[in-house]
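This part of the workshop introduces the protein records we will be handling. The question running through the whole workshop is how a given chain folds. To make this concrete, we reproduce a full record directly below:
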Amino acid sequence: MLGQVRSEVCMTDKKGVGQLRSFYDNHYYADTVAGSGVSLHLRRLARKLLPNPGQRILDVACGTGEWLAAASERRAKVSGVDIASRAVSLARRRLPQGIFAEAVAEALPYADDCFDLVSCLGALEHFPDKPGALREMCRVLDKDGRALILVPNAGFLTRRLGLFRGTEQVAVREDVLTLEAWRTLFEANGFRIERRWGDLHLLSKDWLLKKGWPHLLPRLTQALALTVWPLNWQYQVYHLLVPVMKQ
């Protein structure tokens, strides 16, 4: 297994992990400071996914740790990995009780079957080796655990109309798939979908006012539209996954 992981790391380095690490350290997180607040959206998500204290959660591409902060409020045992050293440093400062590592998703530095929940929120689309990352998430997940993956949807109506061309991370890598293509990818790498639902984090003051008051009305219109659009039109979709290879 170790030889296989090392091989995958070498392969992903050739595919641009070094470029990704540089982008996140020197651009994406360059001006970010350690946060302290937790959004209402993430608190609701933590209540849904972490009903019992003491659950072990790993967040892959944890960033500065806001989602893990919400999980920690539910008394979860939190761990996180990210390829960006600056993000890991900020996450450690935010959650000194957590366990954090600078690592690639394709070679997670953990033993088999050691987490109850593995999450990867808004990040898989940026990974050079998505199958390798999913297999690693499945490996470290307990047989009775779940994986929570948030990914963008190529069927997003605003995108199909040409009004949205991706996040700022498209400059380095952003692979947006249809929901059916995501399903195929998950099922080919050890998972089945237990449940899916749309991401409604846009219904928040922070997102609505992110570009200032002049943009409030169009952003509010888009956010409200997501509450009634079918899943195939949603911007991002949560996938709650079961590790079928272990059952």
Summary: Residues 21 and 84 are 5 Å apart (CA to CA). Strands lie at 56-60, 77-82, 99-102, 115-121, 141-152, 191-198, 236-243. The radius of gyration is 17 Å. Residues 1-12 have pLDDT under 50 and may be disordered.
